Amino acid sequence: EAKEARDRQAQAEADARAEEARRLLPAPDAIERARQRLVALARQRKRRLIAQLAVFVLAPALAVLVYMAQVATPMYEARSVVMVTKAGADKGADLGGILPAFAGGANLNEAFQAYEFIKSRALMQRLEDEAGVVTRFSGDSVDPLHRLRDLPLLGLTRHGQFGNYVDAAINIQNGLITLYVHAPTPQDTVELSQLVIDTTAQHINQLADELFAARVAQADRAVADARAQLRDAQAALTRMQIDSGEIDPRARVEGVFSSIEKLTLDAQTLRAQIEEAEVAGTGDTIQTNRLRERERLLTDRIEEERAQLVTDAPGQGASLNALLLDYELALLEVRIGEETLTTALASAEKARQDAALGRNFFQVVVPPTPSEQPARPNILRSTLLA
Model's pTM, two decimal places? Predict the structure, then answer.
């Protein structure tokens, strides 16, 4: 009986476990419903992926393709190469010591000036004033996406977009400037290229003319100042000659020295005669006394002549030494004025020669030639990029 009870209990537990297992296992129709839900979710995700691919990839690419093919304005490109040279011999470019093989044929300073002007807003304004280029590229002749316009919200300006139509590159080794111009027709590219070259050449030459004009004006002012200085020096010399009554004080000084030399010789002769009379014992005679008086007079004359050289006599003006010094200084001022005027005239002549030989010339190494096919838009590249 105990064994039967244990068997019944074990069977009851087994039946309970089986019943619990049957309760936990899904029914066949539930498994099918779950499988159908998973299939539906997969289809929904696939449709969402296809919709996203269509919206974010295919539609934009198709829009770009349609715009480039049907709306975008074809733009032809003309490339030209120019070089800035001078009529005079080049003194050496800035990079001549580094690149001597390339630095001898171009003026890099003027080349960079031309390059910066081509890239500047000033050229865009000049082209607008002379030919209405900005107005033309802002109108209906250009598709809406590439029109020149100011969009402050997007940070776009006309000048920022103007590089799509006029652009340049410079070779820093030889100063060659490559000009890129885009326009709706081949003829427009050639005309616009020539207009850009002419306008740039005019601007660079104007800068050079202003610089050389300033140098010539400065040289002319230096010549005028030198002439005024020379006139003042000559006038001061003339006034001194008139005031002193001496055309050349050096002649008078030389005359005084000659007179002192002659009087000294005469005094020495008289002194010798007096000494001879004293030796002969006739030193107290009237004749010897007369010789002594003559010697005294000659000595006084010598002192007077010497006093004229170094002493200012009352009522007679400055001494000859001071007069000679003033004369030499005045004469030196005249010579300095003459040398200054000569140097100023030479500088003015050189400035005029530099102005004549320093004019810039724009040599068109490669004339503007339009492309046979529109360079923009590139439909395939733009679509693939999109």
Answer: 0.61
